[in-house]
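User: I'm curious whether this sequence folds into something compact or stays loose and floppy. Could you predict its structure so I can see for myself?
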Amino acid sequence: MNIVSGGFSLFLSSEVDSVELLAQHVIGVLAVFQESIHMKIEELKNKIPEVCAAARVIVQHYGHTKKFAKHIVALVIKQLKNLTDVDLAEFVGTNKVGKMLGYKKIPTDSTFSKVRERANPAMFEELNNWILLDRMKGKQIRLLAPDSTDVPANSLDDGDARWGHRTPSKREQAEAGGNANEMFFGYKLHAIAAAESDIPVGFFIAPANRHDSVFFHKLFEDAKKRFCIMFGAKLLADSGYDATRIHKEIHDNNMKAVIARNGRGHRKSEDPKDPEYGKRWAIERIFSRLKGMFGLAKNRVIGLKKVSIHIYSCLIAYLMTFLM
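Assistant: Here's the prediction. I'll summarize afterward.
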């Protein structure tokens, strides 16, 4: 007891002169943090007019007026800033960004819930694709990397969600004693990325029970239609894509399949020897950013339609940050 008391007293006596310095340091850190937030808002202002202009054109194709576009962009801002619907209403109703969109007052708490009811997910998909095509026009892709990531359902009562397998992160596996797979209830975002630029270029959203390889053809076709795939380009994929039809499709398109060998439960899966296989982690980085920066895993809605709107809002937020 005396040792503890003595140590505490010694700590106080040795640190008391540093309190003012510590306070100044904390204030400095807070100032830098506030400046960082301010810079993000300023950067957002520069991108909003262009995105909103595209959204105004897109929403009219689905029977909405131009004014509806502000709600579409607002849902993207929600993911950019990791806001709740209530916080989003406060933000667009009081911030200059909201005024740029056309909000004249704070919307009601139910506004964005109603927007999800009325909106077609295809509008968000079109806006996402518009950013991609506008910013990557003329660019060639040499390395493609497909994969999927889990998006948990908000409720077990979600009738569109299904049970499926997910591969935990290395940290999660270490904490769980090395389990390579676990079950979850929800959806999956299937995506294919340009691995040298960390930009997702093809997407599909489905219930969690569908296998990754099922959606490869669509992802690959989308990437080919939108972008120029270089002759001799490589597909970098994990063992989930080790299927004869995928190897054939890649070969028929004058590409090289760099795919991990699937042991089919009889032997351990084996990574390719190709020195560029490690660049496959680009798709993992994209998923990590979508979850850590843009709230992909924080799904608060129910049903495939609304979940798709949530996922595409996250993807648009990603492209506005890393591509625009």
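Summary: Strands lie at 140-152, 162-166, 182-194, 199-207, 228-237, 256-259. The longest helix spans residues 19-60.
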